[in-house]
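Throughout our pipeline, every protein is held as a single compact record rather than as scattered files. Such a record has a labelled line for the sequence and another for the backbone structure tokens. The remainder of this section carries one protein's record, kept here as part of the documentation:
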Amino acid sequence: MTNNGGANRPHRDLYAAIGRVASASARLETTLRLILNDLAGMNDIAWILFEGQSTDSLISNCRTILWFAGGGDTIWIWNSDQRMRLTKLLDECTELRRGRNVVIHGTWSDFCEYEDYEDRECELRPPDSPQDGRIYFFKRSKQRMPVGDTHLAIIDIETLADQFEAMDSRMRTLQREAREAQRRRWKLRQSEGE
């Protein structure tokens, strides 16, 4: 990364914030993989199949199993309330993933690289973004369609990392609740002689 004078300098605050997003999103991927394994029947084969899948694939596979599991409550499928709550969390995960991709795959700079182009402008931060002093510009092109520079503050990136950590906590709490309910159902079925 370069500053306005073009000389390289460390941006530890930016790199630390980006690192938090990377780490928190990787942890959420692991949680999604564990939940997917639970939904698929908690076996080693399911774990092997889901290992290394992207966040998109993990979310998609969770949705597929939830959709097909729909009406039945077998011993390994979460109850309808838990499935509904998980579906809502998966929607939120999809939005977080988009923000993660911008942060992780963006090219970062101290200045807007498009300032010198008359037909291009730098996009401003979202109006609801908290204000803080360190502003960085990023650009990202997607599918060969260049996107102009946009700026974010460190607080915006830190907020995204916080959201990933909170989502992971919510997912793990729901998973623990579902596993405990599974154990209770299993014990009840055993006591009834099934």
User: Anything to note?
Assistant: Strands lie at 107-109, 135-139, 150-153. DSSP finds five helices and three strands in the chain. Confidence is low (pLDDT under 50) at residues 1-8.
